[in-house]
Poly(A) polymerase
Amino acid sequence: MDLLNRQPQYLGVTHPVSLSYPTPREIHISDLLIQELLRQGTFESEYETRRCEVIIDKFDKLVKELIYNISREKRLSDTNAKEAGGKIFTFGSYKLGVYGTGADIDILCIAPRHITRDDFFYYMHHTLNNFAEVSELSSITDAYVPVINLRFQDIPINLVFARLELAKIPNELEIKENSLLKNLDEICIRSLKGSRDADEILRLVPSLPAFRTSLRCIKLWAKRRAIYSNVMGFFGGVSWAILVARICQLYPNAIAGAIVSRFFRIVYQWKWPHPVLLKPIEDNNPLNFRVWNPKIYHDDLYHLMPIITPSYPSKCATHNVTQFTKKIMEREFGRAVGIMDHIMTGTGKWSDLFAKHNFFGRYRYYLQIIVLSDSSEKHLKWSGRVESRVRYLISKLESIGSLALAHPFAKGFNKIHHCINDQMVKDVMRGVFDSTPINYKNDTELSQNIQDVTDTANIRVIYTTTFYIGLEIESGSRQLDLTWPTQEFIKFVKGWDKYDEKSMGITIRYVKSVELPSEVFDDGEHLLKRTNIRS
Ligand code: ATP
Ligand code: MG
């Protein structure tokens, strides 16, 4: 037998830690977990599942139709235009099988080489704009992965696009082979990567049911503890998925309750910056794309908690983590280890694990970053821009000696203000607006509100998003002066080429815990999910 060429009998970069099968106790704990996840509403209903399938099917048809129409416009014959084809792939949490109510559906649209990115974004945006079922449509063409965000019958959808070096895209097309990436531009490669990663993750976990239940649990926990946000410097969906998949590899026969318990212990004790990998990084690098490698690339050395995406070209999904966000996540891992010990011994409940964070009760002082604009379209872009830069402020705050911790809250609070006089405008700009705003849940409600008020008076509508950073001052420190980092941050974000002084603004101020607006204590019903901008 050829021992050298024999494939390892396990999935992952090391042998499993244990091949044990579940004990009756672990089976019981896992049943309780599923009951709790059901109680918490993390599983979508059959009706929702069906609705998503119908929507995905519509997008598949739409993409094919669009490719046909653009092909005809480019003077392809009817036969060639029909044969041009087109295909969609879902990816992200939907593809991984952990989609839950309120989550987004990520869709990759694949086109043949004669359809450019500009063609696709232009035609898709204009087509969708005419659909009655579509709301909150926005194209973000300058993002790291350009995306069209929308709601279709109120379900959030993210569309990314890649064109392949092929004249036709048949329905049977698969995108697993690295050779398909040859001659593609960087943006297409990034856009394909989400789908290729999802396929790899699914291939690399030993038991899908255990993986899915564990991942649902970890996602719910991370959201409740407000540490679910790639953009703010925590982990995002794919990072949590890879981490859970790695624990599944280490315990290939375990079930969800046991996986989750080990998850917290292992992640808590992980020797960062040792990377989390699901398979060896493909470093023979046939196509010469940049692959995560701290031995070659100096930047990669700065990744504090590297979690590496499995598909070629492998990247670090957690490059946004800062010293402070690492500290916050480690604190949460530690808390969870303690709770899990109680759950496993029967002295604690799963609901303890999912208890809501106490971010707004935890600190005496907060920084409040108020981002404002005078139109909803501009605001979506401007507030998204600031949100994606908050972690730079956090990095700057790390160098302030008297600050033990600057803790960014995972999401911003959106509001619309109908200002009836200049004083109200000034108040909103200073962040004094607790009594004036009208919260909005979606665009329809929003435009209805605007209609109601603008019909009756001369009103200035201002949109705000407020981000919070909790401040923990070093014991013994008496003074805290954050003028320099906050001013620098404002200068930095205003340096954006689309920044318009007349219609946009940003203010940063301190607030004491007793001055926090009441909105921050609700359950976050009105927190709009941000657009999916990666940077
Ligand atoms: P959620 O349930 O929050 O939507 P998700 O896994 O779908 O979780 P998204 O933020 O919607 O996460 O992103 C969709 C996909 O895009 C991810 O699964 C991943 O493949 C890719 N992606 C997003 N952010 C990153 C990142 N920082 N690094 C690598 N890939 C990313
Ligand atoms: Mg998603």
The chain has three domains: 9-39+204-353, 46-199, 361-530. Residues 63 and 498 are 30 Å apart (CA to CA).
